[in-house]
Amino acid sequence: MGIFSTDYIKSYKATFSLAYPVVLSQLGHIMVGVVDTAMVGQIGTIEQAAVALSNSLYTLVLVFGLGVSYGVTPLVAAADSAGNTNQNSELLKHGIVINTVLGILLFILLFSISPVLNLFDQKQEVVDLAIPFLNVMMLGMIPLCIFSGFKQFTEGLSFTGIAMLITIAANLLNILLNYLMIFGHWGFPEMGLMGSCWASFISRVIMAIAMFAYVYYNKEFRKYRSGFSLKNISRDLTKKILNIGVPSGLQWVFEVGAFAFAVVMIGWISPKAQAAHQVALSIAATTYMMASGLSAAASVRVGNQAGLHNREGVRIAGFSAFLMVLVFMGVCAISFILFKDDLPIIFNRDVEVISIASSLIVIAAFFQLSDGVQVVGLGALRGVKDVKLPTIITLIAYWGIGLPMSYYLAFKLNLGVEGVWYGLSIGLFIAAACLFLRFNYISKKI
Residue 1 pLDDT more than 70? Predict the structure, then answer.
């Protein structure tokens, strides 16, 4: 069956209609960090390096929390295709409980261990700013996890638009609050770096409240209203969700964690290299989160077809998403190369930081395709509830191969910060190849 056949064209349309709201919603999560990086960069390089260092831990926790919430989505999609309303009411209840408890536990965990930043041999002035910034950002994990719990439930039912609108509105609010609280405009106190994290916290609280109100009051979800009762929590259903969600979270942690640990290695080079890494990573993370929207759509569409035991439907849904992400990330790669000298200026005015970031953006351009394929591969495999082996693949690719190569190229071959990114690119390529082959193999077994 050709990629331009009627079935594939239908699949492209269905995937796109699901994906574009998710893309914008996912983009919203990462745009909080992008906006913080850009606006804090106007204060100074040390402050921007502090954001980079704190985000090295915060982003790990963020993607784990988001990944765990993904455990609900394929189960909801499968139950929806089978017309099982009672099952989805239970999934709503258990998903919200799991995500709320998770948000609280993650906040307590990282608040307790944030002083560990002192052990990474970083510049002390950077660490002193990073720790309080990180603590407030972690407080925002609680409302963000609640928001994500509701969001993944609605996306499993193919309602993706409202989460997009809420996220866009919250990000616009975050930009406004950053402007007011960092620089002290309109009578607000000038809080500098700390104004940025408090702005993010406020916008995320509003996101959680808005998403709760939408699901609770919208007539489309009234048949799931029993899901708001917190009685009779099932250990078996909780385990079933976590069996998908925890490996999904770990898959993200292994990749994003590799880039986060790269911040530590680059900190051994210089604060300017660290700031440049944060600039380039903010740009690359933007396209990654957009590709993860296609991944989420692939998970829902593959999950629907798996619920119907439709092998050909599973394969078309998965492979059409792979093709779409290749086209999208290819356009991003070309854009990175064309605008490599212009993009860093948005984030920093230091000539040396801009120069380093520009070279890293070129490297990022070359790993765009691999990054897109691996994230869609994880989503498609999650749709068929295949999460354990993909988790092992990501661990080996990033931590067994990518990071050791980064260290070797950066410090043994003296390639510096570029060597770190070359090593990470190798890990991405290996993960992409293995996950694509895994989906091709497992989808034939449906």
Answer: no
Both structure tokens of 97: 């409980």
Question: Is residue 35 a contact partner of residue 212, using CB atoms and an 8 Å limit?
Answer: no
Phi, psi for residue 3 in degrees, rounded to 5: -70, -10
Q: What is the C-alpha separation between 320 and 60, in angstroms, rounded?
A: 29
Tokens (6 digits) for 84 = 């099982």
In the block, which residue shows the tokens 């510096």? 416
In order, the DSSP letters of 243-291 are: HHHHHHHHHHHHHHHHHHHHHHHHHTT-HHHHHHHHHHHHHHHHHHHHH
pLDDT at position 44: 64
In this model, does residue 436 exceed pLDDT 90? yes
- d(Cα 93, Cα 85) in Å, to the nearest integer? 13
pTM of the model: 0.73
Report pLDDT for 36: 63
Q: Rounded to whole angstroms, how far apart are CA atoms 330 and 369? A: 6
Q: Which helix (DSSP H) or strand (DSSP E) does residue 123 occupy?
A: none
Nearest by Cα to 98 from 143, 137, 145: 145
Composition of the chain by helix, strand, coil, percent to 5: 85, 0, 15
Token duo for residue 225: 């209203």
How far apart, in whole angstroms, are the C-alpha atoms of residue 392 and residue 242? 17
Contact in structure between 301 and 317 (CB atoms under 8 Å): yes
Give the distance from CA 432 to its chain's centroid: 17
**Spans of all domains in the chain:** 6-443
